[in-house]
Queue: 2 jobs
Job 1
Amino acid sequence: DIQMTQSPFTLSASVGDRVTITCRASQSINFWLAWYQQKPGKAPKVLIYRESTLQSGVPSRFSGSGSGTDFTLTISSLQPDDLATYYCQQYYTYPWTFGQGTKVEL
Amino acid sequence: EVHLLESGGGLVQPGGSLRLSCEASGLTFTDHGMTWVRQAPGKGLEWISGISESGGYSHYADSVQGRFTISRDNSKNTLFLQMKRLRAEDTAIYFCATQFGDYWGQGTLVTVSS
């Protein structure tokens, strides 16, 4: 199975900060990577798919980059509504796998 | 508006069985592969199973392979997860979702405990 490793586990930031979360796959997944945002008690919400394509309705301050094994989710200017846990997920091959999550807090 | 509504969760003893359902509305069900994702209390997301649009192909995580079976009834816009030989570590909120995560249900809690 492909292992997805995110860093950091937690991230403390201030409103307006540029925030970067990284995700590393144990083998190449080309660009078959998605990023999800999950708030407490809620279902996850897809932000980005195919490594860098923004899901409809997602603010443009979110962006994704990378390829192969190393990927990045960037929030250009952190907003209070962005406080959540973020997960990467590979869908290159079954079983699909998630990273362990990165909690973004103030 | 798209809705995915899970049901069937509850308390079950170790070794027991449970069948989850996910009823879809507001979308063309046969246009979407479907998945089940679970989240143990205080833990991260775990993809556990997926099924193709027609139901002809299915895949499983190692942790549930041989114990869980995913299926769908396209005539009823419903996705299922049959869970057998349940273990304490299967305790989690179970979410159904479209294959690429566009739409999610609210989740149903499964607790495996004696």
Job 2
Amino acid sequence: RKEVEQDPGPFNVPEGATVAFNCTYSNSASQSFFWYRQDCRKEPKLLMSVYSSGNEDGRFTAQLNRASQYISLLIRDSKLSDSATYLCVVNVLGGNKLVFGAGTILRVKS
Amino acid sequence: NAGVTQTPKFQVLKTGQSMTLQCAQDMNHNSMYWYRQDPGMGLRLIYYSASEGTTDKGEVPNGYNVSRLNKREFSLRLESAAPSQTSVYFCASSNRDSVREQYFGPGTRLTVT
């Protein structure tokens, strides 16, 4: 079983739509959680951290459910520029390594 | 301030050839990482260096060696390339106290025939 699992998609949505991705992680010792964004043929970049209480950054909302060991990312009012692969990332307590999911592809169409 | 740079951007090797991928960062980061990315597999850690002078194996170290030449530079060597090493290789760096944000280089696309 992969340590971090994501639905690969693609999610094809129209501009202005709301879309949500989920991610599950297997290591209950995981302590820190993040979403990275990767554009086609580019390097990954940090999108946002995920906090236990949930957090927002503009149109993006991230939530964590420790009991069920899943993380979610909600994007409201999708833009064409949101088209990318979204990587779910986990850090285990005390480690200086990140574990990356394989990513979910989002395509926003006009 | 260039961030993380990698050379080369593209490389084609024949099976059995060797090569070194170069990585440098100018952000004074302590930690550096080498990943490979394959379709459907996500980023997998090959080796990392928590600080100058130390290196540790990641998830998929077989067939690779690394050198942390100084604080800025972290190279990855393929001694005898195999087709299974065809991949996109990313170098990354982070502050020791802020592992959450790793800064990635633009990647090296390697094909082994």
